[in-house]
Specification:
With 231 residues, the chain is α+β, with helices and mostly antiparallel strands. Helix content is 49%, strand content 13%. Strand 3, helix 6 and strand 4 form a beta-alpha-beta unit. The longest helix is centred in the N-terminal third of the chain and has 24 residues.
Length: 231
Amino acid sequence: MHRPFAIISIVSASLVLPGCADMSPSQRGTAVGAGTGAGLGAILGASTGGGGGKRTATGAVLGGAAGALVGNIWSSRMEQQKREMEQATQGTGVQVSQTQDNRLKLDIPSDISFDSNRSDIKPNFRPVLDKFGTSLVEHTNTNVTIVGHTDNTGSDAVNDPLSVNRAARTRDYLISRGAASNRFRIDGRGSHEPLVPNDNEANRAKNRRVEIYVAEQQATAQAPQQGQPQR
């Protein structure tokens, strides 16, 4: 390891991590991004060769500036979406929360989303998606990740594609409500990430679920408005 990179990495971590405890979620995301960017910048500076410590330090500075624009923030818009979804899903069993990496998470259980071994959206899931779709149309600066899960009944050959299909059906429904298709990413985890042990029917039902994550990226939030000078 190059000595300048080792020094910069240690300094970046020592500056970012202790201060995070007293930061707001959005400030914490920015600080961690800046520290990570500084470390990446140091690697890039060292790998280009020549210039010695000056090139490495320059890479760290540039990387830190880029890192400050990477990651998610919890803006007033995200807080508004969270309140809207809490109201829309009250009494349905849907869990609405803010994740540690500043994403809005909707954890949707199987009793309102999908029947066992099916990817068809149940009728009582549609009002939740209708409200969520409206929120997405109103807040265009976010992107969405939808992850499907199954219980351990059946083989991976069945469960893995089933979990993807559940995520895809959820995405397609939201697109039909007016959300742009390029805002979505889907994934399926099959039975590989259970919430609870699959040792009884009640627990298996908890593991059959869809998780929806909404993220507002730091770069989006800090983009200058039209007509405003960039600094």
